[in-house]
Amino acid sequence: MDEVEEVEVVVAHAERATLRVGGVFLKVDADRARTDAEVEAMSLAPVPTPEILWRKPPVLAIAAVPGATLGRLGGAAAGSPAGWAAAGAAIRKLHDAPPPARTGRAGRSSAVLAAELDAECALLVAEGVLPADLVARNRRVAEAALRPWTPAFTHGDLQIAHVFLDGDQVTGIIDWSEAGRGDALYDLATFTLGHEEHLDEVLAGYGADVDLDVIHAWWSARSLLAVRWLAEHGFDPFAPGCEVDVLRSRM
């Protein structure tokens, strides 16, 4: 009997799951549109992406990419300043590319985002999840994200755990299901969320003037919108360095 590789559950919740078997990742998603978006985005992105091995809905099989991530939210960050700058340069290359026709997570209109924030803030307070003053302060900070922006090719979920480097070279960016047209500063804020100390290094590689107030606004907005969802899906936004600490840092 052939030896069977150990199966690792990378992430799993009601909407989707990712398993790793050796050098293969199996992504299972109940929403075929997300997988369609992921496959299209990887075919268009001008940055390294995983090789698609096969697809049989609802499963997408992709190859592991070489290298290691810069860390994760809530954990210690790794990598040299040159590595963070290389990530910034890759993000800029993505943002400069012609965007897909699809609107991604980072492409919500200001009106839609404002309504989502107001509704979520009300629930956070009403359900006693967060103190009212913490929510109110961050809602005010988040207001700076509600402004006109030029559509860019955005990843939409650019956590540092989704960017792999070998030394100071980007070897792959994974998890493209939220990609599409959107606000470039959303990606930059997501990538530096909880790791503010590396923002200057990322922007040095990105090579463009960036409104820091908007980056700060997206840190607040993204965290406010994520806290309840994370808690309901088995994650801990109250862990050190995670979303609630990001909100507290705005105080």
TrEMBL record:
Q: Which UniProt keywords apply?
A: Transferase
Per the UniProt record, one Pfam family is: APH
Q: Does the keyword Transit peptide apply?
A: no
Report domain Aminoglycoside phosphotransferase positions: 42-209
GO MF terms, alphabetically ordered: transferase activity
**Transferase: is it a keyword of this entry?**
yes
UniProt feature coiled coil, ranges: none
Q: Which PANTHER family does this chain map to?
A: AMINOGLYCOSIDE PHOSPHOTRANSFERASE DOMAIN-CONTAINING PROTEIN-RELATED, AMINOGLYCOSIDE PHOSPHOTRANSFERASE-RELATED-RELATED
What is the name listed in the Swiss-Prot or TrEMBL entry for this protein? Aminoglycoside phosphotransferase
Task: Report the source organism.
Answer: Streptomyces violaceoruber
